Amino acid sequence: MILGLETSCDETAAALVTQDGEIRSSVVASQAALHARFGGVVPEVASRRHLELVCPVIREALAGADATLDDVGLVAVTIGPGLVGALLVGVSAAKALAWGRGLPLAPVDHLHAHVASLYLEPDPLEPPFLCLLATGGHTLLLDVRDRGGYRTVGTTIDDAAGEAFDKGARLLGLGYPGGAALDGLAAKGDAEAYDFPVARLDGLDFSFSGVKTALLYAVRDLAADELERRRADLAASYQRAIVRALVSRARAAADELGHGRIAVVGGVAANSELRASLPGAALVPLALCTDNAAMIASAARFVEPLAPSAYLDLDAHAAA
Ligand code: KG4
Ligand code: ZN
pTM of the prediction? Predict the structure, then answer.
């Protein structure tokens, strides 16, 4: 089995996955509550928490799969992009485990892993397809022709979609991270109540700073009691603007590249309106949208593993 480790942001995760892509266990310890009072992830706090959680989470993943380290043939770990201190905890743990057991180690790119969440059982997706990857840190359109990688054809020129959801949620008093809470509030509102702008850029890129500013002004213009009454409408209209941008660009990219199939991955793929707006698309299962280690182990199957000692100087990197 492959032991996957993920510590790039504020989730400490470990999973056991077979070479065939069957998930035997997947444990995710979210630090969201720890960072909530700061209104965002505090990198140093995240690193320290990963350090406390990484061994218990690995133990739980092994127990959940009814396995021991003797059943592990490959260790896989996220090496970037992400918070470098957080990443280093996972990379160090993976090196120590792999070296101690004489196992190979697969260095995994976090974004490739989000795409590889589509390659897991019971419903593995076969390329080619156009992939919309929307997380708290990235919004990408990817031309996927094989499982080993992808080509980026569109990106955001400012905020990521998840970041736009989180900033909107914050403006609406929904706490951090607020994407899922905004999604829930939007279900109770009228999406046509406000006409928030969607940036029209040339090509296949995204921009979400304009819609965020529009929400900011709308919130500012309302008295406190009025704001309370309109919160659900604001959430619904804001969500609609973001989802429209994502859907229209993903469709345009698929047309341009001749892909008959669109897939959606990343935390924002959990959004109910986005899922409903793309009938026929391959949507990653809800449990695998936000950060997890099953996707890391999945990606490792398409990466050249490093032999013992070759990975001892392996480093983490913050940027994509
Ligand atoms: O993939 P992910 O766990 O982490 C990164 O790699 O960044 O994505 C987290 C992002 C956050 O911005 C979160 O607010 C957003 O995904 N998110 C959602 C929903 N659930 C999570 N955004 C919109 N609607 C949701 N239901
Ligand atoms: Zn992620």
Answer: 0.96
